[in-house]
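Ticket #4471: structure output looks truncated?

Reporter: J.K.
Steps to reproduce: submitted the chain below (498 residues) through the standard prediction queue, then opened the result file.
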Amino acid sequence: MDTQAEAEQFHRQFMEAYLRAQNQPKSSQRLEIVIVGGGATGIELSAELHRIVQALCEINAYRYDGGRPAEVGICIIEAAERLLPGLPPYLSAATSRQLEKLGIAVLTGERVLEVTREGLKTGKIPHVPAHIKVWAAGVKAPAFLLELDGLETNAINQLIVRRTLQTSLDDNIFVIGDCAACPQPHSNRNVPPTAQAAHQEASLTYTNILRRLHGKKLLEYSYRDYGCLVTFGKYSTVGTLMGNLLGQVFIEGFMARLVYLSLYKMHQAALFGAFRTALLAVVDTFTHGSWLNYGKIDARCARAPRGFASGPGYPLYAIMDAIVDQYSPVLLDFQLRLERIEADIFASRFNHETLVKLYELKREMLLLQTAAVPLLDICNALTRIHSAMIPKDIRPYFRDIYDHVKRLDQSRGGMREMLTAAMSINLILITVNQNEGIQRLAGWGAILAIPTMVFSLFGMNFRYMPELDWRYGYPVTLGLVVLSCVWLYRRLKRAGWL
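Returned output as attached by the reporter:
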């Protein structure tokens, strides 16, 4: 995944797979996720997926239908004999222990031979079931680097550079990061494609460009390993630090987490500056990436001190009402997209993209239904069952939320019917268009059948054919054929076949 769109697509596929597994019978309510690659990327992704699964389980504890959450199995497959093969063994052991605590399965010494729709096949295991498969084994540079004329690349699309970070064939081009295949002195391996290596290369490249502009000798890059940190999200962090005095130091837990966050803030400061990094830290502390505007909720509660003083009912209403208010722009967006799709449907030309847009819109409407409809039962349960928590004077507010969600659901139902009708009309128009094409082919075939039949008779070379001895036989026959074709063309044109 290189872009935000690809990450959102992966998130959408994961949520759809989870919802499908959740709606299966209890014996089939299990979602299998396999990550190929036991490096830092695969390990951190597995921990993050585990965190998301735990959050989904907490949400499902409040399901209105009493259903149970789907079980999710996460497995990491690594071809080497241990995780993090490029790092010290004790770091791999600590990582394996942490993954075992999280319930994440690990298969080492297994090379993936085949990937199918149902799962994977390794050298020792004929079938590893997997609904979602993530490939996190190795780093490969973008393919467009192969198309750059006059530059040398290696087997993984990296541009080969000298120790000055200039390309091997052009001194005017500098390359850094994952795209650079930079040799290490006294070693047959290139500089590893890590963030600290890219940071070091960027600093040296800046210096070398200035030295080149001033006609000075360029400096050579020498990679310095300051250690490695592997984070398990909110659960733990393990890693090593390289120092001149203490050498290699192993850290784990809170201290490793603190070092990781410090390095992340240093990276932000290098990109955005110290002032913007401080503002980002403040914003992250108070909002934590929420899409809700808590300022408006606080303002609403402040304007109704009596309701706020009556207990948690009014703040809960304010939060739920803010959530429901977010659904109206979504429905409006659906309506606008449906109008654009309808315009494409009745266009003169049809394409496969229109049908894809219809299915995507229908799928998103089902997701909106899954999110909004349970609020109806929640509102009923809060006002009827949990009456002690919701005072009597606050219950009409929840009735207002109920009515709001009901109207939204009715609008969504009407749009769903329009969408179903649009899909049917689109398929009918495509069928009609195909039938018109067949009619045209049939009409031209009938016209061509007349000269074909006549000229095939003359090609029989019969001995006694009266028109052969007649002086005007050929032009008369040719004229009759042309007149017959013109007459048939006019009839078919009038009938709408041509």
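Triage note (M.O.): checked the attachment and the full token line is present. The two ends are 51 Å apart (CA to CA).
Status: closed, working as intended.
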